[in-house]
Every structure is written in structure tokens, then in C-alpha cells.
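As the next step, I wrote out a protein sequence along with its fold in C-alpha cell form, included below for the reader:
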Amino acid sequence: MPASPQADFDERLADALNSALYAGEEIVACEAGDHGQAIALTGRQIIMARVGLAATGELEGHRVTTFPLADVAAINLRKGGLGAVIQVVANQTSTEASSGAPDNVIVFTGPGRVKKAEAFAEAVESITGMTVTRVGPHSQPDRHASPQPDARQEVAEAPAQAEPQPQVPEEEDQPALTAREEYRPNPRLPKPIRKRRRGPSKMLVALGVLAGLTVVGMAVMAPVREAQLAPMPTVTPSTPSISQRSVRLQLQAVANYEKQVSEAMLHARAEVSALRTAIASQSRTAVQNACRPGRIDVAWQTIAALSPPPGLVEANQNLLDGLLRIKNAAAAASVTLESKEALARLDEAESLISKGRSAIAAQRSSLEKQAAALHKQMK
């Protein structure tokens, strides 16, 4: 063992290497691998030591493997992305430790320990004259002839081929982060507010719909309106026949009206004569008895209920005014026995009644003449 062992060596690892030395044997090269692993070279053998839980799988584990140089068939240095391993291929059968690594393999993880593995390989080549096969992450192994005798190499080929290849820790492929995963904004920040795109106003849409309905309605109703406004074909009868018929109808209406007025005035005239006689006698009792039957009131109500024919409205009004004045004269005569004033009122009333009846008679006579003239034209 060197006088000043490396810092990676702890006391248990140094004791494990020393326990495999023969009397007077010295270590000429040694390197520490991962935690609890070390490899050493002497003039007679290669020693691999493992101590502790990480290397042996047991808390107080202690495992030492020796490979006499005479039995070594090949030494391999395999490099990976994360580290390297040194593998010793010998005639003896290697066993796999509980930690998962074979007994003939020492693992070096990390760039610093990879350099230690390379240094140990160079020391082996310079001291023993053996060739160390170096295998990179993406290269094929480049094997050189071993300085050992051919017979020994042939014997070692079988176990060398059957020897399991150590697993070099490779760099795990990490998926590249996408731009969306790399950009992680602060979730506490307020989220941006997107402006909503507003469509057309509801009022404008409603107005557009109403305008469309109005246009459609106008288009539908235009033909109907034109048909209504179109002049209807008329059949015009002869003018004399129309005039004769209308004259006859008017004549009949006037005659009926005159007859109803005459019947209403028949009883009223008798009461007016009795009233005139009573006023002339200047007897209040006689005046009251003359107005008691109420024939003038009945005549006024009857004529007021009639509908005068065209052209006789004024005559109808004269009749009503005359009857009303007779009633007023009778009322005044029953209060004051002034015969002159009362008789004057009766004269005015009878004048209006006579005027109305004369207008009715004149209207009837005119229509009779027109009817006779039209009758002659038709012949």
C-alpha cells in the first residue's frame, strides 16, 4: 500500500486491500471507484475490494476478489456518458454481488473518477505490459494481442465470451422542454383579459328585420292594392229611367209626410179654434178648459218624431215653431186676460204652420210635374 493513500480511500477499504496481499507484496498502483469500491495492482495480482452497504448490499459488507496476472485474459476499460468501468476477464468464474455489479468490475462515476480509471489502465499497461481494451460510448472495442501465451488466451476465450458485460451508466435522455413548459408565468399575476368581439347591435338587427318585413309586405300588398284601385266596369242605365225612379221615390216620400202632418194638425186646429173663442170671451175658465185636452202637445210630439224628406227640413221646423207658439199663447192667456196680445200670438203661430204646410204642398206639386214630364219622355 502506498505511504500516502488517496483521499477517496477510507480505513475499511485500505484494510480490505491489505488483507489480500501476500507477505512482502506491495501495491504498485491503486484507484478508488464509487463509494466503497477500489482496485489495486501488485506485481502478482489485481485486487478488487468492496466494503459497505453501497458496494456489497450489506451494512458491514466486506468483499475482496483477486485475479492473478497469470490467469488474466483481458482488461477492458468501458466509458459511458456518465462514467466508466474497469473489467477484468480471467479464467476463474466471477459471481454477481448482491449490489448488482459483478465481482470483476469496478465502477467509476463522474468525470473525475473516469480520469482515475484511465490512469489505472495506463499504469497496468506500463507495469505489466498488458494491453487494456478501451471502449468508448459510440465506438467498437479495439482489441490488441495480449502478451500472454496463446494457450492461455485460448483457455480464457470461453469464460471471456460467457462473461456478462457490465452496464456502464449511460446518460439518460432527457426530453427537451418545449417553449410552453419552459415559460411558466407567475400564477398570482392577473390573467390578461381578452376583448370580446361584439357583433352588430341588437337594435340594428331588429331594425333590419323590420325593414325587410316591410319591404316584403309592400311587395305582397302592391298587386292587391292595384287591383282595388283599378276602375270597376260599370253599366250605366239610361238617364231618363234613373231620374224617373228617383222622382217617384221622392214624390212618394213627400206625399206620405204631408199625409202624416195633416192627420196630426187636424185635432190641433180644432183646439186652436176653441182657444181663440175662449180668449175673445175673456174668461179664464174657458181658456183653461180649451187647453185641457192637450191636442196641441200631441201634434207637436208627432211632427217632431217624423223624418222630413229632403228639402222639407225648414217646413218641418216652421210647423214645430207654430205649435210651440200656440202653447205659449194659451199659457199667457190663462194668466192675463189680454185678448189682443194673445190673439196676435195665435195669428203668428198659424202663419208659421201655414207656411210649413204650403212648402210641403209646393214640393209635392213640383215632383208631380217632374214625374209627368219624365213619363212623357219615356214614351
In short: The chain has a mean pLDDT of 76. DSSP finds eleven helices and eight strands in the chain. The two ends are 171 Å apart (CA to CA). The longest strand covers residues 72-79.
